[in-house]
Each structure stands twice: as structure tokens, then as C-alpha cells.
Amino acid sequence: MDYSKLNPAKDKDIIIPRAMYATTPATFEKDIQKLESLYSKKDIIKYLKSTKERITNTVCEMVAERYNVEAFYRFKI
Q: Which of 8, 37, 55, 74 has the maximal Cβ count within 10 Å?
């Protein structure tokens, strides 16, 4: 995939999950702030919940905690 051709408005279904796939507990704050500068809380949650990307349950928990929403998971516990 040529990331230089991504459009932040049209490709949020790709950008949001990929950014969170690459995050770690140590980089989460910086990474989520970058996403928040482009996207709403609603969009971030929506695309993380619906992605096929292998987002860890830990990242899903961190996002849910940040936005005070019920925890959601990509994988069954």
C-alpha cells in the first residue's frame, strides 16, 4: 500500500486501525493524540470496533478507558 496516497478524510477506516495496531502502552498517548487531531472520538471508536486489523485487546481497553466507554475487544478473552 502506498501510504502517501491515503486521504485522511476518505481513508479513516485504514488509518485509524493501522495507527492503533502499531501503538504500545509506552507510545499510546502520543499516538492517540495524533489521531485525535484528525478524527473524532466517535470515529476512532467506530473504526477500531469494526476493523479486521489485529488490534490487541490491551489497546482496545486503553481506548475505552480514555473515552469512558464500555470496554470492547477484538479477540475473545
A: 55
Give residue-wise pLDDT tens across range 8-24. 999 999 999 999 999 99
CB atoms within 10 A of CB 12: 19
Q: Which of 77, 74, 70, 6 is nearest to 38 (CA)?
A: 6
Are 63 and 45 within 8 A, CB to CB?
yes
Domain borders along the chain are: 12-66
pTM equals 0.88
Q: How far apart are CA 36 and CA 44, in angstroms?
A: 8
